[in-house]
Amino acid sequence: MKLELIRTAVFLLLLSFAVGLRGQEVWIPGAVGRLSAVVKRPDVSHSKRIPMVILMHGFSSHKNDGIVVGLADELARRGIASIRFDFNGHGMSEGEFRHMTVPNEVEDALQVFRYVEQLPWVSKVGLIGHSQGGVVAAMLAGRLTQRKVKSVVLLAPAAVLRDDAIRGNTMGAVYDPLNPPEYVSIGRLQLGREFIQTAFRLPIYETAAAYHGRAAIFHGTADRIVPYTYGLRFHQLWKGSKWYELKGYDHGFGPGARRVIHDVVDEVALHFRMR
Description:
By secondary structure, the protein is an alpha/beta fold. It has helices at 2-22, 66-77, 102-117, 132-148, 160-167, 193-200, 204-208, 229-237, 257-273, and strands at 24-29, 34-40, 50-56, 81-85, 122-130, 151-155, 169-170, 173-174, 183-186, 189-192, 215-220, 242-246.
């Protein structure tokens, strides 16, 4: 009996350790279905309130992308919790990719924010978004303002997506922007008409302008997917924001993603310490 209790205790300890490493999997109602998410909490007392960052991946990516997971791990090492999730039609979340739009991704992110806001152990909330996730983070910050969001970091924010839709060329897929087809093929993915139509008139910077809190923008000069000038415009829009112009870095922050992750978390930690 005693041996069995020891085995059970060891099993529970190992299980707790494993959950701590990979995080707690949760499901959150989103704009068009349930969103698959992972909450990662640092090893601190459960009675202590700590800040949390919502991590948002880019177009056609997922919550277990290398940069996103790297950020979650580094945040945890610095005593900051995180939640990363798959947008609708991505990863394990419900919905079809062809029905995904930036507006319904903003609604997804808003639902995740509401989930985080009601967690009793969360003290402050920040946002980090990469590529299209950066656009979502900026627009969500504008909707919530600095009253609810205490930190925003944009990584190569893909505000070019509006100009792409106006030009009728998204990721190499060419179409008539005034009369787009039901969907266009981007590799094995089908980008829906509604994405194009909503992107055509998407008020990215106009919505983001309502945010006046702490922010930082990281963008590489060798980014061939989103020219760095689109990130620079957020810096010019948000007075007092910090601008990291990374010479020779691409859209995924090669060749120095690890350095970028470290600098991003430094910024977030500073934002949360400031009053």
